[in-house]
């Protein structure tokens, strides 16, 4: 537009006064546009919550803006549970003693962002104890896994009667036979002292892995994995896989596809489990297989 104004001025079709007026108008438009961009709300981070019942008291753990908070269900007091920024967290009874442990993936502040994403640094596992009505974490394990660019952390049990808890870590890297850097599913087993590799495959399907949750939908005492996948068409679907001896067997895919990226959320009521897709605006959509 500025080029056209200068061109008209050179052809003497505009006076200096008219040029100044047009340029001032353009300046105002630019300033208003910049102000709108700055004042526009950023995309909301998906808030993640977990509920842990410790010694008869309920506690709600909330991960928001990379900080982990805990709320006492009785006193309603909210406090910071862990210092330092976190990327992901989950709670699971890893030691099978009826008490949930806390698993966190710390934020790697030094990692360069790829495609607008952040990655983790350390896996940290904590036991949770109640002291003076305050939930207190005690570190039992940590491992720096920043070299594989971890971005997601989940826990479950892939085999019925298995003594070990299985840990899923979503990583962003290449593999021995596939050189393209992309999201990969890594599974580990917790033996009570440290994690061991269970299955560090290249992919579950040729669709891109975006998120994953453990869920026992078949009722056999072992978890399937529900995987949020990005299709070549750019839409999203949820596929279900079952651990079978030395790998995963495909079971089914959601009846519909979803136009936007969300986060998988497991909702349990009694013996029934539901998988929902949670979006950054707080909306949720149940996944139907």
UniProtKB/TrEMBL annotation:
Keywords: Membrane, Transmembrane, Transmembrane helix. The keyword Membrane applies. It comes from the Bacteria. The chain crosses the membrane at residues 20-38. This is FG-GAP repeat protein. It comes from Cellulosilyticum lentocellum (strain ATCC 49066 / DSM 5427 / NCIMB 11756 / RHM5). The lineage of its organism: Bacteria, Bacillati, Bacillota, Clostridia, Lachnospirales.
